[in-house]
Specification:
alpha/beta, binds hypoxanthine, binds zinc ion, TIM Barrel
């Protein structure tokens, strides 16, 4: 299939996006607006280039924090949700589970209760304007230690809101291994929250084992180093624990994937490890969901039928109710014809 035909076809198939960070879907235009609002001067092209100049996960996370630092008030999130809405529409995404990372906002004095009001308002607005359902997961974060993560969890549990479904564990993996965050996950499970964790993105398979055994994560963000451990791949397959694979993100942060053609997602898929495709940080890695599918098509030789399985997975491994999964999967079948 030609590129334009591929994009048109795939855009028309309803898909779920299960691994994306809302702060990382903002457009360059929004970055410029926020910078001007904060600093009273324009953000230059040279500064924009510099912002996106990093070569590993920790460098990227530093850039992610700089972008969060551009926010000066809670209503700045309106711009992000508008960007998110446009992103979802451009990519034919019918359902989305997205992360937000509150630590940096709380540190600068934002009220979490105000943030939740804004989030709820914007989720409703997206659904009313487009029919697309977006649910949020709060990143307790591993970057600032266990105490900060515990505080984030406390904040989430004391301020529940419609559209909030659980916790994630993102940030600098090499500085905050999964095993250190068991106590937060235990509380989250007790509170009835869903719980997922980034693992095996910047560390070896032991980090994934810890995310599963200690944190009891329901899905693993990235999980690419599972490819180094046959037993782990077998475990993921048998226990139906999905990897949220974001191929371009891994090529960018380089540590374990040197080129798209070498990405282990092909190996996972062939070994029946459940995989869902996500984008992680579209603005930072210059990639959107349709592009990721195109990468799988051109560099990893995924077939049309295999795409259908990946798209069905995106609903099957979501946190939707069984009846909603059924409805979405029927709409995939209908639009596939
Ligand atoms: N890994 C860890 N933390 C993150 C990421 C990621 O890919 N994106 C945003 N926060
Ligand atoms: Zn991520």
């Amino acid at each position: 299939m030609e590129k334009s035909e591929f994009y048109t076809f795939l855009k028309g198939i309803p898909k779920a996006e299960l691994h994306i960070h809302i702060e990382a879907v903002m457009s360059k235009d929004t970055i410029k607006k926020l910078y001007l609002k904060k600093n009273g001067v324009e953000f230059s092209d040279a500064e924009m280039t510099e912002l996106f100049n990093y070569s590993d996960l920790n460098g990227f996370i530093a850039a992610f924090l700089k972008v969060q630092d551009l926010f000066t008030s809670v209503d700045d999130f309106d711009l992000i949700f508008e960007d998110l809405k446009n992103y979802l529409l451009r990519n034919g995404i019918a359902y989305c589970e997205a992360f937000f990372a509150p630590s940096a906002f709380i540190k600068k004095g934002f009220s979490y209760a105000e943030m939740t009001k804004n989030f709820q308002k914007n989720l409703k607005k997206i659904e009313e304007e487009t029919g697309i359902k977006v649910l949020l997961m709060g990143d307790v974060s591993r970057t600032f230690g266990l105490e900060n993560a515990e505080n984030n969890f406390k904040m989430f549990s004391e301020n529940p809101f419609e559209g909030f479904i659980g916790i994630g564990l993102g940030g600098a993996e090499s500085k905050g291994p999964s095993k250190d965050f068991g106590p937060v996950f235990e509380k989250a499970h007790k509170a009835g929250f869903h719980a997922v964790a980034h693992a095996g993105e910047d560390c070896g398979p032991e980090s994934i084992w810890d995310a599963i055994k200690i944190c009891k994560a329901e899905r693993i963000g990235h999980g690419i180093t599972a490819s180094q451990d046959e037993e782990l791949m077998k475990y993921l397959s048998e226990n139906k624990i999905a990897l949220e694979v974001c191929p371009t993100s891994n090529v960018f942060t380089k540590k374990y994937v040197k080129a798209m053609s070498e990405h282990p997602v092909r190996q996972f898929f062939d070994k029946k490890v459940p995989v869902v495709i996500g984008t992680d940080d579209p603005i930072f890695f210059g990639v959107e969901l349709l592009d990721e599918y195109w990468n799988l098509y051109t560099d990893l030789k995924f077939t049309k039928e295999e795409f259908k399985e990946l798209i069905m997975n995106s609903f099957d491994y979501s946190f939707l109710s069984p009846s909603d999964k059924f409805t979405f999967k029927n709409s995939v079948e209908d639009s596939w014809k």
